[in-house]
Amino acid sequence: MTWLYLTLAGVFEVVWATSMKLSNGFGNIWWSVVTFIGMILSFGLLALSLKELPMSLAYPVWTGVGAVGSIVVGVLFFGDKISLLTWLFVALLIIGIIGIKLTSQH
Predict the structure, then answer these.
(1) How far is the C-alpha of 95 from the C-alpha of 58, rounded, in Å?
(2) pLDDT digits (tens, 9 = 90+) for 53-70
(3) Domain ranges of the chain
């Protein structure tokens, strides 16, 4: 269950980052509300995962899932352009996240 909490925390990190962009500098109240709800859920789920997982494991996975997810959302929904070399480094992030999970004792 702990890894599910951590994964969902990363997903909600993407939710709040995306909705913050859509809030237009917090000028759109509804997207601003979604941003704060996403933040609360992301931090809350991270806190739950930290009950069982060491911080040195949970925090990098949380930020990695958020980073990769935000890149994918930016490219798919906001037309962000990233180079082939950048995609290589995104792949390395994914490999790193998987490697952290596979080599952990939890």
Answers:
(1) 16
(2) 999 999 999 999 999 999
(3) 2-103
Residue type (1 letter), 61: V
Query: Which pLDDT band holds residue 106 (cuts at 50, 70, 90)?
Result: confident
Distances (CA, A) of 53 to 39, 50, 60, 100: 20, 5, 12, 12
Inter-CA distances, 2 with 17, 58, 102, Å: 23, 10, 15
Q: In the numeric block, which tokens belong to residue 45?
A: 């789920």
| Count of beta carbons in the 10 Å neighbourhood of residue 39 | 17
pLDDT at 104: 85
State both tokens at 97. 């996240």
Q: Is there a contact between 19 and 35 (Cβ–Cβ < 8 Å)?
A: yes
Token pair listed for 98: 């998987």
pLDDT interval class at 84 (50, 70, 90): very high
Structure tokens at 19: 């909705």
- The label of the residue with tokens 């040195």 reads 56
Q: N- to C-terminal Cα distance for the chain?
A: 11
